[in-house]
Amino acid sequence: MSLKLDYVLRETASNFRRNITLTLATVITVTISLTLLGAALLFGDAVDNATVRWKDGVEFIVFVDPEISPELEEDIRRQLADSPEIGGFTYIDKDEAYAEVQDLLGDSPELVEVITPERLPASFRVKPTDTLPERVDELAAAFRTQPGVAKVVTASETIRAIEDLSSGLRQRVIIIAIVLLVAAAVLILNTIRMALFSRRRDIEVMKLVGATNWFIRVPFMFEGLIQGLIGGVIAIPLIWLTNNFFSVINDDVSLELLRGFTVDPSRVWALGFQMVGLGAVVGTVGSGIAVSRFLDT
Amino acid sequence: MIRMENVTKVYKGEVLALQNASCEVQRGEFVFLVGPSGSGKSTFMRLLNKEEKPDRGRIFVAGKDIGELPSWKVPFLRRNIGCVFQDFKLLPNKTVVQNVAFALEVIGRPRSVIKEKVPAILELVGLSKKMHNFPDELSGGEQQRVSIARAFVNRPLILLADEPTGNLDPNTSLGIMTLLDRINRTGTTVVMATHDRSIVDKMRRRVVELDRGQIVRDQSRGVYE
């Protein structure tokens, strides 16, 4: 069988023009679902990267009572400095904490207004020499009962919280993305069915004069493939945008917690191309189903 | 060329379209299928190019049992059977030459063959001058000529014509019949379903009469009734 490329291209182009609105809707849906899926996967990677970094740095943070006396604070500082199990620590005073909050809530000045440096706790960010979770927990517990200490947060608790949050979030986004992807496939199926319907006379004649089913099928499947591909290609810059948003978090928020919330560019590209491939598969499968159903009846 | 053996076709379990019909058509024959509407003429034709499957009986086309033909081979059977209809089934957005070329294009004939064959067949049906017109710019007779050109351009063994003159006036119909006769003389087997008494009586070819799905008459050099 000789399927001519120019024939397929001509047919596909004319179908595209004919169904421009449906094609647009389909491509947008493919793009959104692939972007969401890509972003969710990227987010997972970023969380992995972020939490890995966290383990290397600060293991627990001692928040002191905002109304602590300078003597008590000095006590804590001395204790941290003297402990052989603590490699180092950084002191974040009220003003620095306030600066952080300002950064964090920069978009909502009304919130920043109600917060004053006096109401924020100063904190010690502690890096123990031994980073075994059990040892860190023990060490943190020792400070928890210290007079003047408001709260002690260990890395493991925070990381676990982030991981829980992110995996929940990731799962949900992936589910939404898959539902959207199915919707995209159904939309493609419908677009192709419309195209088939508008060309039913041509198809009737084609069958009559003995065109093979594959000959009839290929231009329509190609149309679905192109729709999926375009959706995927548009998703690439959007996935990049998500990645840029990560680095915004990373740069702007001086929270040490989230440092390393970033993904290698090569990984972003790979993910982008995977999404294009997925778009192509969804497009081909959707249109394939539409054409087969149409030709069988 | 065509052989039907005890063919029965029932639609939706109740409408009896053909009942135990047996018939043989030789290569190069011209056969009229006559009978009232609903007598099974169209079913007879649709069975031959496997648009329908018989419920019982066997059908041979060019010596092959088409009941045993796998579905992917059906297009190749159809390349040997040209079809002409009462409503022409031309594509309105294509010109005459494009309509005929389409039939060759979609079965993968090379462009050089199309360029050579299409003008030749349009010459044969007498439409060389209207090659670049669209179907709605042609008269009914001319449209039917285009449809015959499309059916015959691939030189099929069999030409099935389902009431080809049904929409045409008597004079135009005669022109179409002359054309079908010429095609028949090239060795192509022609089966034509018709209601047109004057044409059948004038042509004096074999007549197979159907009534309620049964072949009630098979007469060589016959008349309408």
Write a structural description:
The complex is a heterodimer of chains A (297) and B (225). With 297 residues, chain A is α+β, with helices and mostly antiparallel strands. In chain A, 73% of the residues lie in helices and 8% in strands. Chain A is built from 10 helices and 4 strands, in the order H-H-E-H-E-H-H-E-H-E-H-H-H-H. Chain A has a 4-stranded antiparallel sheet with strand order 2-3-1-4. In chain A, helix 2 (20-56) runs antiparallel to helix 10 (265-296), helix 7 runs parallel beside helix 10 and helix 9 (213-252) packs antiparallel against helix 10 (265-296). The longest helix of chain A has 44 residues, at 155-198. Chain B has 225 residues and is an alpha/beta fold. Chain B contains 7 helices and 10 strands. In chain B, the strands form 2 sheets. In chain B, strands 6-7-8-3-9-10 form a 6-stranded mixed sheet, sandwiched between helices. In chain B, a hairpin with a 2-residue loop joins strand 4 (56-61) and strand 5 (64-65). The longest helix of chain B is centred in the last third of the chain and has 16 residues, at 170-185. The radius of gyration of chain B is 17 Å and the shape is globular. The mean pLDDT of chain B is 93. The A-B interface holds A 1-4, 7, 201-202, 204-213, 215-216 and B 49, 72, 75-80, 83, 89, 91-92, 102-103, 105-108, 110, 150-151, 154.
Radius of gyration computed on alpha carbons of chain A: 29 Å
N- to C-terminal distance of chain A:
23 Å
Chain pair sharing the greatest interface: A-B, 19 and 22 residues
* Measured distance between first and last alpha carbons of chain B: 26 Å
Structural class of chain A: alpha+beta
Radius of gyration of chain B, taken over Cα atoms and rounded to an integer in Å: 17 Å
Task: Report the average pLDDT across residues of chain B.
Answer: 93
General shape of chain A: rod-shaped
Poorly predicted runs of chain B are none
Taken as a percent bin, the fraction of beta residues of chain A is 5-15%
Task: Report the portion of residues of chain B in β strands.
Answer: 25-35%
The tally of helices of chain B reads 7
User: What number is the mean pLDDT of chain A?
Assistant: 79
Q: In what order do the strands lie side by side in the largest sheet of chain B?
A: 6-7-8-3-9-10
